[in-house]
Amino acid sequence: MNRKKILKTAVFAVIVVAVAAVLEVCAFNFKPITVSLGWRQDETRTYAQADFRLENCYINAGGEIEIGEGEAHLWLENLNYELNTMRVSFESGGISSVSAFCDSSTEDKTVTLANGAGNVVVDGNILSVRFDLQGETGDTLKNFTVIINDYQFRFSWARFIAMIAVCFITRGLFALQHPVDYGIDTSDTGAASAKKEEDKGEGESA
């Protein structure tokens, strides 16, 4: 590889890294940045177990939410609050999953949250949230927490590297492409055309 190609590759790499960094910081973390700058007025709210209305479940002596008879639900009511994101976290003691049903002014949305955590994205004025507990009687969960509009700056190295890799792979694929050779001698064709034009000019002058 000669110096010219090395220079082109280096310039391309610098541009790709810079663009990927700008996208990761400004595009994928747009909301956290706007909140930190005061451009958004969305307030972060945190709800713990004591803030929920329990239906067919109760808080046992160990401070865990335990499923009773019937379908178990946790309710957040009378919110009337602008919601964009909602993060749910909990520690399961037998409960297989938790489904979140969001009643908002623009859309109703149900999201199943497994493995003790998950995110729900709903744009609109949220009225209430119902959490359905999936499990058997006696199953428990603890440290059930909901954070509304949890805007945190998160730089994803995986996404950053993926964007760079896609750019280099695309560049490599374009570099592998070559003009198609149809077996036509363009030099002879060009000479014949020039000769034809010359003969035409002589005929007109005559």
Task: List descriptors.
Jelly Rolls; 206 residues; ten-stranded antiparallel beta sheet; 35% helix; alpha+beta
Secondary-structure map with pairings?
Blueprint: H1 3-27, H2 30-36, E1 45-47, E2 53-55, E3 57-59, E4 65-67, E5 72-76, E6 81-93, E7 97-104, E8 108-113, E9 117-134, E10 140-148, H3 157-176, H4 186-205
Antiparallel strand pairs: 1-10, 2-5, 3-4, 4-10, 5-9, 6-9, 6-10, 7-8, 7-9
Helix pairs in contact: 1-3
Biased composition (Basic and acidic residues): 194-206
Region (Disordered): 187-206
CATH superfamily of the largest domain: Galactose-binding domain-like
Helix content: 25-40%
Sheet/helix structural class:
alpha+beta
CATH class of the largest domain: Mainly Beta
**CA(first)-CA(last) distance:** 57 Å
Pattern of helices and strands: HHEEEEEEEEEEHH
CATH fold group of the largest domain: Jelly Rolls
Looking at the structure, what is the overall shape? Answer: elongated
Can you describe what's shown?
By secondary structure, the protein is α+β, with helices and mostly antiparallel strands. It folds into two domains: 52 residues, no CATH class; 107 residues, Jelly Rolls (Sandwich), CATH 2.60.120.260.
